[in-house]
Design goal:
Distance between the termini: 19 Å
Low-confidence stretches: 109-115
Strand content: under 5%
Number of domains: 2
CATH superfamily of the largest domain: RNA polymerase sigma factor, region 2, helix turn helix motif
Radius of gyration: 18 Å
Number of helices: 9
CATH architecture of the largest domain: Orthogonal Bundle
Largest sheet: none
CATH topology of the largest domain: Rna Polymerase Sigma Factor, Chain: A
Length: about 200
C-alpha cells in the first residue's frame, strides 16, 4: 500500500471507526513533516510541536465531521499552516505574517546523504544551492522533494496554480543541477532531482 493510500486509510478509520490506534499511526506518519513545516512559519520547533499537537487534538475532536475530506495530507498541512499563522498573529499582534516570511532553515533536511546516495560534502552543496533559491521557489521544492507532496497538494496549500508550482520547480531543478553537476554523475543528478507530478 502506498504511503498516501495508507494515510487515507488511517484517516478514514479515525473518522468512521473512532479508531485511536489509527489516530496514533496517522500522527506518527505525519508529525515530523508537519512540525518542520510549522517551524518554518513560527521559527520554533518547540512551538511547532505544540501547534501540530493541537492540530491533531482538533482532528480527533472533529473526526465525525471530517468524513468529507478527500485528501487528509492537504487537510492537515492547511490546518497546520492556518494554526501556525494564527499563532504568530497572536504573538505579534501588529505584525502581519504570511508564507512570504517563512524561515526556510527550519525546513532544512540534508538530501539523502544518510542513505549513502551522495557524500556529506555534496549534500552540503545541494543544501546551499537549495538555500540560494527564492523563498517561494525553495518552499515549493522542499514540500515536493522532501515532504513528498504532489503539485496539486502544494498548489492547494499555498493558494497558487499547479502551473506556478511547475514553473517554480523547473527553476529550482535547473539551479540545483547547475551547482551539483560537476560533483555527481548525470545519472545521480537526475535521480536526486527527479520529481513526479
Amino acid at each position: 500500500m502506498g504511503k498516501d493510500k495508507q494515510i487515507q486509510s488511517l484517516f478514514q478509520r479515525v473518522c468512521y471507526e473512532n479508531d485511536i490506534q489509527a489516530y496514533n499511526e496517522l500522527y506518527i506518519a505525519l508529525c515530523a513533516r508537519l512540525i518542520h513545516f510549522s517551524a518554518s512559519i513560527v521559527s520554533s520547533f518547540h512551538l511547532a510541536e505544540e501547534i501540530v499537537s493541537d492540530v491533531f487534538i482538533t482532528l480527533w475532536q472533529k473526526r465525525n465531521d471530517l468524513s468529507h475530506v478527500d485528501n487528509p495530507v492537504v487537510y492537515l498541512y492547511v490546518s497546520t499552516k492556518n494554526l501556525s499563522l494564527n499563532t504568530l498573529a497572536q504573538q505579534k499582534k501588529h505584525q502581519h505574517r504570511s508564507l512570504d516570511h517563512i524561515n526556510l532553515d527550519m525546513l532544512s533536511i540534508a538530501p539523502d546523504a544518510e542513505n549513502g546516495m551522495v557524500s556529506a560534502e555534496v549534500a552540503q552543496k545541494i543544501e546551499k544551492a537549495i538555500r540560494s533559491l527564492p523563498t517561494r521557489c525553495q518552499l515549493i521544492f522542499r514540500l515536493i522533494k522532501h515532504d513528498g507532496l504532489s503539485y496539486r497538494e502544494v498548489a492547494i496549500l499555498l493558494n497558487i496554480s499547479t502551473k506556478t508550482v511547475d514553473a517554480q520547480l523547473t527553476i529550482a531543478v535547473k539551479k540545483i543541477s547547475q551547482v551539483i553537476r560537476f560533483d555527481l554523475s548525470n545519472e545521480i543528478v537526475q535521480s536526486f532531482l527527479r520529481i513526479d507530478s
